[in-house]
Each structure stands twice: as C-alpha cells, then as structure tokens.
Amino acid sequence: MSNGPDASARLEAWATAIASASAPHETDFAVHTALTYARGGRGRRALVRRAPSITAGSGGELVTTVLPALWDALAASCELLKSALGSPVVANGVSTATLLLAVHRRRDGAPPAEGTGGSAPAEPATGGGELLVLARAVAEVSRRLQAHGMDPAAADQAAASAVAALHAGRDEGAGAFLGLLAGEGRDASGERSAGTPRTGLRRLAARVPGLRRSGRARGRSR
Questions:
Q1: Helices and strands, counts by H and E, the chain
Q2: How would you classify the pairing of strands 53-56 and 61-64?
Q3: pLDDT digits (tens, 9 = 90+) for 88-122
Q4: How far apart are CA 158 and CA 149, in angstroms?
Q5: Taking a C-beta distance cutoff of 8 angstroms, is the pair 17, 215 a contact?
C-alpha cells in the first residue's frame, strides 16, 4: 500500500476500532492483518486462504480468527457500504443490536420496527426505512463471511458490529478506510473523509472503542 503515512494511520486506527467491535480477542494483530490485506497480492491471498489460529478462552483452545475474513467481506462490499454510510436518510446513531434486529426482520419479510417502538432496543429515533439502508449492507457483509465458512449467527454478529462502528465514524474517515482496505486510491470516489486530518481520528477515538489504543500505531507511521 503506497498511500502515505496519513493513509496508513487511518487504516491502522480503523482496523483496531473494527476489531474491538467485532473480534475483541484479535485486536493485537488487527493492524498487521489489515495492512497485509490492503497491500494485496500474494500476502492478501495467503491471509484469506489460511486464516491463522490463536489461543483463546479459559481453556486455551485454538480458534480460527475472524479478521481476515472480515477484511475480505468489507472490501468486497466496499461500494455498498460507502453508499449506505453516505445515505442522507441515515443520520442517527445505531447499535449492533438494532442492526441485527433490522436484518432479521428484513429476512423474515417483516417491516423494520419504527423508532424505539415494538420490540426494538431503545435507540435514538431511527425510522424503519432508514435502517433498511444499513440492514442491506449488514446482510451482504454477513453473506460474504458465511462464504468463508463462518456460522450464520456469528457472521451476522460480526457484520452488524463492524457496520455499527463504521456508521459511528462515517464522518471521520470510514469511507476512506474501506477504500484503502479494498485497494483504492487515497482519494477514491472523491470521498470527503479521505482528507480527514489526524484530529478527526482523535475525535473518533472518543466515540468508537478501540481507537484510543491506536495512538502508538499513528506515531510509528510518521
């Protein structure tokens, strides 16, 4: 990847944030796997083909990692995700639980719950029509995760967590991160957030868990 230190810092910060939301036990190597994936070529193919195993859980069992498949799913869904994040109708905060409910209702053919009514978890008012935009993106990321062999429920959870984190930082470089992950240029699609300064990452750190720990990574990229 040859997009300069700012692009590297953005990718590192977002990789940590997404890992913290979707695969907390994998945050220690989130930056390495994201950078390897974004560089493309043989390294990316090897990463996706042979996802490493790590020791996790109280019993020290080996588990297959989530992040290589997640980077691949996010990159493959890049345009859909950027469209959803940039939609003017999606203006309010959403949680992982709300997105999971919207995806399940969409699959069941039921209309999404409006606002905070019905069985929807308490959230800032977000209409059903607005949630459909994000629910489509979550469903696509989940579908691609399942194609990597992930259990459907786990794929839904990982996809919803990642999209919720991206949505929370949609004005702080989320679209640019997706472009970098997919191998696009730093200014792909004229994305306004591609020029977000480092102060934008600091503001995002207060909103998305995990970015607080990215300061050292940004320092190394200078």
A1: 11, 2
A2: antiparallel
A3: 776 677 889 989 998 988 887 655 444 433 333 33
A4: 13
A5: no
CA angle 66–101–127, rounded 5-degree value: 125
Within 60-199, strands assigned E span 61-64
Cβ-in-10-Å burial (0-12, 13-18, 19+) of 50 comes to exposed
Distance CA 202, CA 222 (A): 16
Which residues have a Cβ under 8 Å from the Cβ of 101 and sit 6 or more positions away? 112, 113, 119, 120, 121
The two tokens of residue 9 are 């810092």
**Model-wide pTM > 0.90:** no
Residue 117 CA to its chain's centroid (Å): 27
Burial of 104 (C-beta count, 10 Å sphere; 0-12/13-18/19+):
middle
At residue 180, does pLDDT exceed 90? yes
Q: Which residues make beta-bridge pairs with 64?
A: 53
Cα–Cα distance for residue pair 8/124, rounded to 1 Å: 33
Report d(CA 45, CA 152) in Å as an integer.
Answer: 23
Q: Which amino acid is at 31?
A: V
Tokens of 151: 């259990």
SS (H, E, C) 69-91: HHHHHHHHCHHHHHHHHCCCCCC
